[in-house]
Every structure is written in C-alpha cells, then in structure tokens.
Amino acid sequence: MMVKEVAELAGISVRTLHHYDEIGLLHPSQTTEAGYRIYTDEDLAKLQQILYFRELGFPLKQIRQIVSSTDFDRMEAMELHHKLLLEKRIRLERMIETLEKTMKHEKGEINMSNQEKFAGFDFSSNPYEQEARERWGDQAVDESNAKLGSLSKSEQTKLEEEMNAIYRKLAALRQLSPESDEAQEAIGEWYRFLNRLGSYSLEAFKGLGQMYVDDERFTRNIDKFGEGLAVFMRDAMAEYADRRN
C-alpha cells in the first residue's frame, strides 16, 4: 500500500508516517523506482502495534525500543494490549459514571461528596508503562539502582570512582572505531562492572546503550566526560553484544 492509503486506513496523517520513518520507528519495506514508499502487510502489523502503544500513552522513543527488540513477541504484546485496554475501559467507565453523577449534582438532583467527585481520576503514574517496563524495559537499571541504594556511603563512593574511571577510559578512546580491540576491551570492562550491580543479558546491555542516546538525560551526563561519548558507547556496546550472541 502507498503511504496515503495507509494513512487513510489507520486514521493518521501522511506526515505522521513520514515522521515514523525518519526516526526509525517504522520504515516501509519497499520503495518504487520513483522513490514512493510501499508498505507491506508486515509493516501494517507493526503499525498496529505502534498505535496500540500510543493509545496507552507510551512515548515514541520507548515504542521504538520495544518493537525493535530482538525478543519482542507480537502475540505477547497483543495479549498485554488486550489486558491493559480492558483496564483502561474500566477506568474510563468509572470516570464517565463520575461525570454523569456530577452533572446530576450540578442540576440539584443528587448530592456528591468531594471524594466522589474525583472517583476514577489517577494521574500519579502510568500503570501501562510500568507493566511494559517489566517485560521489555529497563528493569536491570532499576535493579542496579536498588543495589546501589543498599550500599554504605563509602562503598557507593568507591563504585562511583570506578565507574568514572571507566567512563574516562572510554572517553579517551572515543575517536577510535567502536569495533577496535581497544574499544571492545574497555566496553567489556563496563559490561562486567554493570553485572556486578545487576543482571544484564547481552541484549539488555545493547538496549541500555541505545538508551544512552535516546534519553537525553543519559546523553547529557555521559557526554560530560567527552562530547560524543554516549554515541560511541552505544555503538561499542552493540558490537560487543552482537559478537557474543
């Protein structure tokens, strides 16, 4: 299907599809000799997954990370979507009920307590994102943070110094190819360091490297050791994982 046909089918704009292509979220599998994008049935299936995640409030960067993961299972994702959308429906039904009661209250037909006026509202967190994080997200990062929090102040300081030393070593190598022996030896040291704090599979290690670039908070902190270090580490971590898979 051509891009305009896909946009009409999915109820989104052509500009949105172009944006998904530009950020690497959804590339059309084929192009014509004239350069027109052609979407296959497989592309449409992936688009459906993307739109479900969007409906549940996920940011595009996280959707890209999830659907591009090598262990992403479409059926498992659909089962999760089904569960979360049912939960969302229940929440919306409660909010609709609250709204209807509020309208009657405003007309003087019933009395509502202040607590009843806010039944169904909960903006404290995104429960859908939390469940997906547990399946595809950065649970290894959370485990590491929890372990760090259990250490004494002196132990934390020692680990921080060791971590910064690895960052400085990698920063000094960032002009080399991420595939070089020097870069791979240093990034291997980073992998072993992280696994002292948590449990990082090679795939999780690769995903963490991508997060260094996708999440500006990581990029900003890592690049304090040298401009472009986050990108260098991402590429070196991906190479390290790919060589061992």
Describe the structure.
This protein has helices at 3-10, 14-22, 41-55, 60-67, 74-106, 114-117, 127-136, 139-149, 153-173, 181-197, 202-214, 216-222, 229-244, and strands spanning 30-31, 37-38. It is mainly alpha-helical and 245 residues long. It has 3 domains: 3-57, Multidrug-efflux Transporter Regulator, Chain: A, Domain 2, CATH 1.10.1660.10; 74-136, Multidrug-efflux Transporter Regulator, Chain: A, Domain 2 (Orthogonal Bundle); 139-244, Orthogonal Bundle (Globin-like), CATH 1.10.490. Strands 1-2 form a two-stranded antiparallel sheet. Helix 11 (202-214) packs across helix 12 and helix 11 packs antiparallel against helix 13 (229-244).
SSE blueprint:
Blueprint: H1 3-10, H2 14-22, E1 30-31, E2 37-38, H3 41-55, H4 60-67, H5 74-106, H6 114-117, H7 127-136, H8 139-149, H9 153-173, H10 181-197, H11 202-214, H12 216-222, H13 229-244
Antiparallel strand pairs: 1-2
Helix pairs in contact: 1-2, 3-4, 9-10, 10-13, 11-12, 11-13
